[in-house]
């Protein structure tokens, strides 16, 4: 605010309005007005409110020039221009809306605003028509829409493919090896064609060198690092549903030529030779300019150029007499020289070779049954060639082949490069088998002796005709020796060898070789002795043990190692030291005295035999103690007092583990008062048994006892002292012991207190048991049962019993003095179950039945009894017969069934079943639930008309425990979510019920709900019986009048068919129906009916029609199909394209 008033108009304004100009946007202004007449100017008016100078903002105008650029069966491309007015605010974007044909609703297509003036409308449904409009948006809101002038039919635009080769590679393309082959084409067509590249009629695919880029309309084939094999005819095929197009490109890859073929060297003399060859199979893509001829001698590595500019395929090469040469030839073009082709064998520079001389000393060395063995020597003159060969022929007198007892004549000649010599012939000879009895000799004198680990070679010479069969065996066995890892057998014409490697002691023996043929049999043998260390001695014993010596005896080893045993080695070891020392290594007999032992030490001994190969394995004796053989017995275990009195006690003990080698003759028992130092003997003579009653004790004194064992050697060490026992009378035994209860694994015992406690309070009872037949010598078999804690009551349950055994029981009372005499159970007992039949006790209320409101829990309980505890099962009698939702608990003698959140389905008869080996017991309870009724049954719609329908149904299967009072009928249009009530109270006797006032052409859902005194039940929807009430519309067909295609292509004809109800369609050709086949197909999807013909020909030309029929009418639409002729291509005799016609 400046605070200065400025006049706006220069001349008075006659109107009561004025447009003020020259304001600055964003500034705030105030205005006032003066009135003027001829008398002058009035006072100013009141000041107006402050006003900020801003542009007036409104909604923008609609977009302009909306056009359809392209479309297909799933999208449409549109474009437009900006609105002429933006409403005073920048255009933020655009909104595209679409409307399907037959509906009045416009749907927004884009979620976000479109910034550009072009858009692809997606999501079109094939065959439907759409209307498109666009709105401009600024910050005020959306403009009025601009609608596309024409409607859009969602279908593909069919344009046959067209292929145009780029000028850079049109007709042909030439590249050098290693360069890149780039074939560029431009492809058009709708829909986008499928591109296929091929080379020489073989399809190409992407690999390490090949790239295929299809960026329509540009399609490119790129081959990196071109090689010679890439040359050829490349073809691109573009194919879509409208047809296909093809283009070819000839590619030539220039490279060095291949290797020359059929290299030959002929007319060799001592001075020259002629070298010839043929052109390579591949000239490298360009003409061959010259050939390079080279040679080398076998002793040289480098090649010498004979000619580097030879243009012919034949040349004369100079040679040096007596030398050998290799030749090689390579072709060369403008790219370079190709690989050479080399001769495989050297050529010797000599003059032509003459015929060789005749073989020398030609004779028959051996005659067999069906063969003759011929021998001769080389001729003296080889004709100047070292490559000699021989021809052998036979001349039979009668038969062609060598047959026994026939006469033959043989001849031989020499042959080299110069020719063949004269024949040398034998005299006539008769072919027959010569029988010679086998003869075999082993080249071995006496017995073959080898050391263990060495090899055993045995060789035999074999003679005989025919060739004998040779077999090796060992000892007296008949099994043939076979080859193995250590055994090798080699047999020839006149010998047989056996080789055994890594000889072992078990390889010793007699080896027999046998040769046999049709003339007889012959055998020879060889004895083999393998020397090794001796085996272990046998039966080592220790005897004559004294304080300082003992005697060792043993048997000689079973195997002496193949040679005499020289001596035995004796070693000893003190067990506490664990160190072995040699006692003697020169014992020659199998008995030895071992001296210098230390009395009381424990020793072990080992003995091994030794021969000239070394000592064998040692054999160890048992441990012995140096000393006399017998000793005093060990100390017994501490004695126990088994019976207590105020003047006597019974003491018992067990025998010691060792008796010292002599039987125990008795025991010495000693006693002392507690805390005394000296022990006093109880008996003078040894006690023969392990129990003794000590008398003459002082009442209330504490005594301890110990015992010593006695044998012939003497008295052993005393045992440990027993615990101190007070001389008092023990309590009287319990009375009236009996079995209170029993099961398969337990027995419960009961008894009464003793009549006397012995003068001291009872501290508990001891229960003992034993199985019949378990008593053994020295063990009466009684075992204490209550070990864990002191038993103070007159009852105890013995567990973990075996039902197959018979048990005895006894109980003893215990006070501070000791244990009373036991009270035995009269008779043995077998653990067995006490059976008690199951019983059920129910409350009186449950016996009369239970009524529960739906939603409340159901609780059933019962008291159960039985031995053994019965198995509890709750069941619901009826359809399922099983309680599915309930929870069953068993607490002591009570069982509970709880069903939370009960429903009407839980009504019924419930059964409680008890089962045990003692029997079964069942009880039934009737449960009634009050609830709303269930769904009605058999809801049907009949008598369907355009404005009404008749509904009928049956009462619900479950009425909720109360009679049905009335029904509620509701309806819902298919495009709505809420239900409308048709009638709230339909009386039970008003079924069926008629629904009126329905809208024609609208689809409805109906449902019916039953009502009782507890409320409305579950509704039943008639979803599967939905009603579509609509007028009948006769069929309408929209399709082209004509359709054409080129022969060999695929023809597709689409037709839009509408009508209510939906009509059925049928394609006709003339008066006959079109029959689908592998080449012809008919499809109908929604309102689209399609006819497809593959590989069309001129025979498919003709008049077709589509017939659509529904309940209202039958209509037909004609179609004319025209097929254009095929392309005929002519080639000349060289396979080149000459001319083509259509």
TrEMBL record:
Q: Where is the Fibronectin type-III domain?
A: 1-57, 62-157, 259-352, 536-631, 635-730, 733-833, 935-1031
- Mind giving the lineage of the organism this protein is from? Eukaryota, Metazoa, Chordata, Craniata, Vertebrata
Species of the source = Amphiprion percula (Orange clownfish)
Against Pfam families, the record matches this protein to: fn3, I-set
Entry keywords, A to Z: Immunoglobulin domain, Repeat
- SMART domains, per this entry? FN3, IG, IGc2
Domain Ig-like: from-to ranges: 161-252, 438-529, 838-910, 1035-1116
Tell me the protein's name. Titin
Q: Which PANTHER family match?
A: MICROFIBRIL-ASSOCIATED GLYCOPROTEIN 3, TITIN
Could you tell me which Gene3D superfamilies the record lists for this protein?
Answer: Immunoglobulins
Region annotated Disordered, chain positions: 716-736
